[in-house]
Amino acid sequence: MPLTYPIAEQTLDNGLRVVVSSDRAVPIVAVNLWYNVGSRHEPEGLTGFAHLFEHLMFQGSRNVASGQHFSLLENAGASLNASTFFDRTNYFESLPSGGLDLALWLEADRMGYLLDAVNQENLDNQRDVVKEEKRQSYDNRPYGDSYERLVRLAFPADHPYAHMTIGSMADLDAASVEDVHAFFRKYYGPNNAVLTIVGDVSVEDAFDAAKRYFGHLPAIPQPPAAPDGTIGPLTEVHRDDVVSDVPSDLVTMMFRLPMDGTPELDAAGLALDVLAAGQSGRLNRRLVRDEQIAQSVSGGALPLIGGVSFGTLTGIASDGVDLQKVEDALLEEVEKLAEEGVTEDELATVQAQAERDWLEQLSTCAGRADEISHHALLFGDPNRINTRIDQVRAVTVEQVQAAAAQWIRAAGRVQVAYRRSENAGEQA
């Protein structure tokens, strides 16, 4: 099912890759900027720096006062935000097309001149913001630290994916202004980024605007490559059992998976979808509808490019049900899939779900801009948005079973189980 979204590319003299997809259907333009820096690029002692900059980038630059980045764009009718992940950091805004120049000027000012505004006061303020975010999203939220626990179990301590993007609060406390400036100079330059513009603008005008606002910014020295995280499937079981004030007993399992961009990862992702995606998934049918031992089940693959990905399966026990029953049922279905495979109908169902989700993502200018930046930065091919679903559709039942048999096994997993204190004695 080939898609035909138009893609035009240019690389500025300073190395900034600019991708434009003109769409004159609605008077909206999306600006999306991906930097090739995430938590896997952070060396020991500097964890959390990429995420810290997600906050600092909104706190002013040479020509923009603190807080004005948000206020100027919101006054122009924009929605905007940023996110940090293992493999990248991205900044994005979607606004009426007349605001394109404003959006590009603001992005360029902080790419080129952020450090003019990063002083001790600013650093201390945003460090406290990050700490509060960790308290709210990780420490004081039910199950909030599950992924922190899982990645520590799933990867060696020195692996690039062994820590979450929030990082270590001790590392942030120890960070000096000089440390922060050095990290920015190392990664936040035009030749380490992709700028995507999608929407109500001509290709020529979009490229001209990109050159006007970004073309004068100097390239940075070639950033160091992220450490190689290539590692095979898990071959042992490691558990973390937590007694906590949680609403229900819950178990989450994590499996290492193949690297993103490979047919093997597509196959492994579809295997997890057969188990856990939607109401028709095997786990939902058995655990929730038939046996009623779980309130809900979920799971899926999390694609990563640093040599390995991972996937999860989660079950929340029904009230009064021993969590061990949920764990046992999850593992039985994992083994059944690996040993017996999937049917053609099951595969067609999850492939159709993937196609629907992909088309929904591409249906908006903002969603399309994000995926173009994603595939341009991490795979060097923005046109992959037009071919991606064909790669998923090409996966066979044989490939799904082979991926499951190698990567998604009861004997090769890590897991964290949360039990309410009154249920702790039920632990197997």
Structure description:
This is Insulinase family protein. Residues 17-141 form the Peptidase M16 N-terminal domain. This protein is of the alpha+beta class. The protein folds into 2 domains: 8-215, 2-Layer Sandwich (Cytochrome Bc1 Complex, Chain A, domain 1); 237-420, Cytochrome Bc1 Complex, Chain A, domain 1. It contains 15 helices and 11 strands. The protein has a 6-stranded mixed sheet, with helices on both faces. Strands 7-11-8-10-9 form a 5-stranded mixed sheet, with helices on both faces. The longest helix has 20 residues, at 120-139.
Question: In terms of topology, how is this protein built?
Answer:
Layout: E1 8-11, E2 17-22, E3 28-35, H1 49-56, H2 68-75, E4 79-84, E5 89-96, H3 100-113, H4 120-139, H5 146-154, H6 169-174, H7 177-187, E6 193-199, H8 203-214, E7 237-243, E8 250-257, H9 263-276, H10 282-290, E9 294-302, E10 309-317, H11 323-340, H12 344-362, H13 365-379, H14 384-393, H15 397-407, E11 413-419
Parallel strand pairs: 2-6, 7-11
Antiparallel strand pairs: 1-2, 3-5, 3-6, 4-5, 8-10, 8-11, 9-10
GO molecular function, one term: metallopeptidase activity
Domain Peptidase M16 C-terminal: 176-353
InterPro entries: Metalloenz_LuxS/M16, Pept_M16_N, Peptidase_M16, Peptidase_M16_C
